[in-house]
């Protein structure tokens, strides 16, 4: 293990030249992932970083770990196989909004439903970057691009809603340039057992510049986002005087000190609650009606596929009459092929 944090961080960098455009948000996400690994002190040989295809999916080249840059949309399928075959590996899946939610949508939801212990980083730049700017399943309605010259006529997926709809137990959101927050949520994702989805609001400077700016810009961030922390009241705003309450079955933004509202009225975040109702409402909050939720929104416990698969294999082995190759050839058992 490295002697200091700087050395630890460097041990996860590969010798490849990073080929993303200057100013691309992907650089900061790579940095955050390497910092996360350094803080968790995971041995390089215990890590596998698996991606599909896209600008974001180039990330495994830059990691000094096991890795696989696979085919478009198949990151979840490959990562699932790697984890189930070798549960000792800590598996990180790197994917884009196109890779995960368009061509790979099917694999994405089933990995979540199965609750395979994968840490998925979803780079959401609301565009197909690598193929030069087609709209994606997360592009805003009305978005003008090369494939939607008159504006899209469809509503986008919300990755948090999709995760929870697929019975997901972990969802977090961060912003590319907020490296400290990214490291915090990536560490939580690594510690969570089961599929962890981390959505990163990422800026593509070339094909969709400033798409998240109205909430990520320093000028507005404190008033237009809320960083959720388990066990803490849902307070936000530059003046720290805005909060969230439940009115009936809907969330509402209130101002502390107005209309008799005090800090005691503000909802307290329970990320570990199994019931996803409030988590879904928090994940779905959009500006300007609400602040956009950042941090760990959902982190609940549930049976994990790869652990259950291992356990099942052991139980079947235990019950089987066949304990060795010798048994296999001498039991006289035959497999009938119909
Ligand atoms: C089977 C197949 N279909 C289409 C493509 C073309 N293709 C490559 S990357 C990509 C979209 C990438 O978008 P995203 O996953 O959002 O990644 P980004 O480049 O934005 O990081 C597409 C359509 C391909 N490589 N393979
Ligand atoms: S095209 Fe966009 S997403 Fe791709 S490397 Fe350049 S800035 Fe990043
Ligand atoms: Mg994209």
From TrEMBL:
PANTHER family: 2-OXOGLUTARATE OXIDOREDUCTASE SUBUNIT KORB, 2-OXOGLUTARATE OXIDOREDUCTASE SUBUNIT KORB-RELATED. The lineage of its organism: Bacteria, Pseudomonadati, Bacteroidota, Bacteroidia, Marinilabiliales. One of its GO terms (molecular function) is oxidoreductase activity, acting on the aldehyde or oxo group of donors, iron-sulfur protein as acceptor. Keywords: Oxidoreductase. Gene3D superfamilies: 3.40.50.970. SUPFAM superfamilies: Thiamin diphosphate-binding fold (THDP-binding) (SSF52518). The keyword Oxidoreductase applies. It comes from Marinilabilia salmonicolor. It holds the Pfam family TPP_enzyme_C. One of its GO terms (biological process) is small molecule metabolic process. This is 2-oxoglutarate ferredoxin oxidoreductase subunit beta. InterPro entries: 2-oxoacid:Fd_oxidoreductase, THDP-binding, TPP_enzyme_TPP-bd.
